[in-house]
Amino acid sequence: MLDTNGRNVTDQSISPVMVVVGELNVDLILEEINQLPEIGKERIAKGMTLTLGSSSAILASNASMLGLDVGFIGRIGRDAFGELALRSLQDSRVDTRHIIETEGLTTGVTTIFTHRNDRGMLTYPGAMESLVLDDIPWDYLHQAKHLHLSSYYLQSGLRPSCKELFRRAKQLGLSTSLDTNWDPEEKWGKDVLDVLPYIDIFLPNDHEARLISGKNDLDAALEFLSQRAGIVVATCGAEGVRAQQGDQKLSLPGLPVRPVDAVGAGDSFNAGFLNRYLGGEKLEDCLHYGLLTGAFSTLGSGGTSAFRDRDHFRRFSREMNAH
Questions:
Q1: How many whole angstroms separate alpha carbon 173 and alpha carbon 157?
Q2: 180 neighbors 212 (Cβ within 8 angstroms)
Q3: CA distance 233 to 40
Q4: Which of 200, 234, 263, 270 has its CA at a distance of 20 to 30 angstroms from the CA of residue 39?
Q5: Letter string b/e over residues 6-20, b meaning 16 or more CB atoms within 10 A of that residue's CB
Q6: Interacting residues of 232 by C-beta distance below 8 A, sequence separation 6+
Q7: 201 contact partners, CB below 8 Å, separation of at least 6
Q8: Cα–Cα distance between 70 and 97 in angstroms, integer?
Q9: 186: left (phi > 0), else alpha (psi -120 to 50), else beta?
Q10: Alpha carbon 156 to chain centroid distance?
C-alpha cells in the first residue's frame, strides 16, 4: 500500500540500524556470450538471469540477510521492474517504507554480459536519477545508527547534495560509508573529495581509488584518500583487500573459490564489512568477514541469490575459517 507521496506503507516498524540511500534497479544478466557485442551484429548468451540489481540494493539485501536491520531510501517507477525490486528487498526483510514509487518514471535496468573471465555493463538509470535531498525523511534517518550510499556517480539528482546529506547525518550522530562505484562518464569529478571528510568508511575498488585520487600507485592512493576519510578500504578482486586508517595499513589475501558469477561481489563485501563494523569489531575482523561474504556471493548467479541459503553460508564460513 502507498501513501499520498508514493511511499510504501508496510508493517515494518523496527527502527533500522543501517539506512541505505541509493539507486534501485534490476539486473538482466546475459551469461557467457559467445563473442563481445558489436554494432550491427547479433550474439548469443548461454544463460539469462533477471534479478534484483544495483549496488545499493544488493548491499542492503545481503546485509539484511546477514542479520542487520536495514532500511532503504530510493525511487522506482510504478512498473514490473519496480515491483520485482521492491518484492526482492521485502523478501530479504529490508524496510521499504521510504522507497517512492513514481508515476511517469520507469525503474532502471542494468544489462550485464559476461564473456570468459570478464564482464561489461549497460545501465538505463530511470527513476534513480530523480532521487533528491528533499526525498530524505530525516526523522527516519535519525532513528538509525549508520548511513550508506552507493553509486555516487550514477545518482545525478542526489550527487550535488551528497556533502549536505552526509554532513547532516554526522550531525544526527550517525556513522557513514560511501562506495562511489564506477563513473560511466570516466570524468572522476573531484567533487567527491569534498564529501570524504564526512565519511567514516570509504569503499572504492582498487581502480576507483587510483582514479579518484589521481595516483597511479595504490599505496599512494590509499595514503591520499585516508587523509580525507576515516577508513579507506580498497577491494582488489581475487587478490583480496587493502585498507588504511591513519598510519595503520592492512592487506588480506582473497579466498580461494570457484566463482559462478562475480556480479555484486564488491557490494557483498561491503555488506559483510559493515555488519562487523557496526557490531564493534576491529578493522582486521571486518575485512576478513567482508572477504568471506564477497567470496560467498560469487557462488550464485546475480548479487543476492547465494545469500538465500543461510545453511550454505554457515557451512562455507566454517570451511573458510578452518583453512
A1: 25
A2: yes
A3: 41
A4: 263
A5: ebbeeeeeeebbbbb
A6: 202, 204, 209, 222, 225, 226, 243, 244, 245
A7: 175, 176, 177, 178, 229, 230, 231, 233, 273, 274, 277
A8: 11
A9: left
A10: 17
pLDDT in tens, 175-224: 999 999 999 999 998 999 999 999 999 999 999 999 999 999 999 999 99
Closest CA to 64 of 308, 284, 282: 308
Closest by alpha carbon to 112, among 316, 320, 301?
A: 301
Under 8 Å between Cβ of 22 and 57: yes
The helix/strand count (H/E) of the chain reads as 10, 13
Helix, strand, or coil (residue 79): coil
Cell of 83: 515491483
Coil, strand or helix at 304? coil
Element (H, E) at 167: helix 162-171
Q: Is 296 helix (H, G, I), strand (E, B) or coil?
A: helix
pTM to 2 decimals? 0.92
